[in-house]
Write a structure and sequence with these properties.
By secondary structure, the chain is of the alpha/beta class. The chain has four domains: about 1-110, Tetrapyrrole methylase, N-terminal domain (Cobalt-precorrin-4 Transmethylase, domain 1); about 115-220, Tetrapyrrole methylase, C-terminal domain (Methyltransferase, Cobalt-precorrin-4 Transmethylase, Domain 2, 2-Layer Sandwich), CATH 3.30.950; about 225-320, MazG-like (Helix Hairpins); about 365-440, no CATH class. It contains 18 helices and ten strands. The protein has helices at about 15-25, 50-55, 60-75, 90-100, 115-120, 125-130, 140, 155-165, 225-240, 240-245, 250-265, 275-300, 305-320, 320-325, 335-350, 370-380, 400-415, 420-440, and strands at about 1-5, 30, 45, 80-85, 105, 130-135, 150, 180-185, 190-195, 210-215. The strands form two sheets. The chain has a five-stranded parallel beta sheet, with helices on both faces. A five-stranded mixed beta sheet has the order 6-7-10-8-9, covered by helices on one side. α7 (about 140) links the parallel β6 (about 130-135) and β7. α11 runs antiparallel to α12 (about 275-300). The longest helix has 25 residues, at about 275-300. It is elongated and about 100 Å long.
Length: about 450
Amino acid sequence: MVEIVGLGPAGSEYVSRHTLDRIAAHRHRWLRTAIHPSAHVVADASTFDHLYESADSFDGVYSAIVETLVAAAHEHGEILYAVPGSPLVLERTVRELIADSRVRCVINPAIGFLEMAWARLGIDPVEERVTLIDGHTFATAATDVGGPMLVAHCHANWVLSEIKLAAEDTIDASNDECEVVILHHLGLPDERVVTTRWSELDRTLEADHLTSIYVPALATPVGRELTSFHRLARTLRERCPWDREQTHQSLVTYLLEETHEVVDAILALDPEDPSTDEHLMEELGDLLYQIEFHAAIAEEEGRFTMGDVARGINDKLVRRHPHVFASHGSDGETSDDLVASWDAIKSAEKRAKGLDDGPFAGVPVSSGSLGYAAAVLKKAEKAGVPLSVSPVPDAHLEHLTDVGEHLLAVVAECRRRGLDPEVVLREVTNVHRANAEQRLRA
C-alpha cells in the first residue's frame, strides 16, 4: 500500500496536523522532490531529485518513480509518498499510481497552490470559469480555451518562453498592452505577484517550481503547429544521437543546401499549377527546421531562444516600418523615400550597437562570389565611389545571352588555367572594395 500526502503550497505552516500524523505513522518514506519549502517535515525520506537530472524526459522520470514506489510497497508492505501541494492537482505520478493495478493507494487531502492563487488574484474560479492548464502541454491544452486560465508547472523561463510563443499571435489584444499575472513563491517571505506585459512574460523574474501564471483572456486557437514543431526540434536535439552532435558551425552546410533548395522550388513555381506549391512548402519547412535547430542549440547553451528570435525580428520590422506603424501616417511617401528611411534606421541601429555602419556593412562575405561582387558594386555606387572596373564593349554584348556567354567564357578560361572562378572573383572584388574604402577615408 502507498499512502500519499501533500505538503501544501509553501512552508510547513500550511501542512495539516492530519498530514503530519500520517507522516509519523510510516517508517519508509519517499519524497517526489526535496526542493520544496515544507519538504523538511518528512524526515529520513528518500527523494527522486536525482532522476530529474539523469532522465531524458519527464515521462521517464514519472515512470521511474512509479516503478520504485511499487517495488518499495511490495518490499515493505506500506510506504509513504509525499508530494508538493495537493496530491490530486497536476500530480502525474499520483495519477499513474492510482491507475497501477499492482498497488493500492490511499490519498489524503491537502491544501494546494490553487487556494493560495485564488486568494491572491481575488477571484472565484467557479464564477470566472477558470481553466487549469499544465504549462508543459499549454500549446495543445489551451487550443479551445478562450476564457481565463491558470497555468501551472511554469518551473523555468524556457517553459514561459514556450507558452508565450504558443499564444503570442492570439492574445486577445491588438497590441502589447495585454497583461498576464505571474504568481511566484506564494505564501513565502519572498512572494511576488507581478502583472506584466505578454512580451515580458519570460523576462520578468527567474521562474522555478513555485511559479505559475494567470492569463485573463486568450483568443483561440493558439499557434499549436508552430509550438509543436518548436518542441519537436528540442526533442530531436535531446534524443537523436546525430542531432546531439551538431553545432552551429557543423550545420552551415545544411543551411546553405536548404536555402538553395528553397530558391529552386521558387523558380519551379507554376502560377497555373497549384500543385507546385507543395514542393515550396516542403522546402520552406526544411529551412524552418534549420532555424529551429540553431535556436534549440542556443537555448541549450542558455544564450537565446526561438522566442527571442521571433521577438527580435518582430521588433526590428516594426521599427523599420514607421510608415506602417507610426501614428502620423505617411501616404505621401514614395518608394525612394521609404528606402532612404530604411537605410537611415539601419545605420542608426548599427551605431547604437557599436557596429560598423560603413558603406559595405551588411554585405554577406559568405555569399557566392557573383552575388558578393554585385552587392559590393551596388554599395560602392551608392556611397559615391563607383569601382573602376573596365566595362565590356557594348558591341560585344548586344543581348542578355551575350552577357551569359561572356561570363561562361570567363569561367571556362579560369578552368583552363587551373583557377577557381569563385576564388578569383572574390579576391578581385575584395581588392576593389579595399580601394573604395580607402578613398572614402581619404
